[in-house]
């Protein structure tokens, strides 16, 4: 008997006295909790997102759609980035003004290859204002999960107000649970037993978020 069979056998024995319940999951699980806290306009929701992102030590920028290429070029230049990792579905005009060399998202790239890249640029699936969280779902403008975990510098573009929701329940309603979801609240950070903060251990040391309006 394999370990898998033993574990499944224990699960079956543990559930032997549990009555069958055909109630659909949507009805069996209560949803009486608040879906957001307070009432805000779309502009106030975006302001809250920016405030919470900054509280997590992300660098927040705002621009209009037509200003995006110049802003991205400036951010990469200020960082000294010579290479930028680009997902396959990233809008081409985003990097139209940038001098950095584009590195495609290749399935064959190793962690060492990704670590050599100076920056990565992606879009996002949704942003949560109340928690200052960005969610990536592996869509063409976001690429594979690993490209946002290995490079030290991540620039994420958020369309406002369309991609911003007030709360986590609102985000879950937009997301496909079968997709590879990455939830990002600020740059990667951890601390040891003495509470010394160390950044860049589990992901990018620097997270820059561009809130783009219009377009």
Structure notes:
- By secondary structure, this protein is an alpha/beta fold.
- Helix content is 24%, strand content 24%.
- The chain has one domain (40-213): NagB/RpiA/CoA transferase-like (Rossmann fold), CATH 3.40.50.10420.
- It is globular, with a radius of gyration of 21 Å.
- 33% of the residues are buried.
- The mean pLDDT is 92.
Brief write-up:
The protein is an alpha/beta fold and 215 residues long. 24% of the residues lie in helices and 24% in strands. The longest helix is centred in the N-terminal third of the chain and has 14 residues.
CATH architecture: 3-Layer(aba) Sandwich
CATH superfamily: NagB/RpiA/CoA transferase-like
Beta-strand portion reads 15-25%
N-to-C span: 60 Å
Structural descriptors:
215 residues; alpha/beta; Rossmann fold; 6-stranded parallel beta sheet; 12 strands; globular; LUD_dom
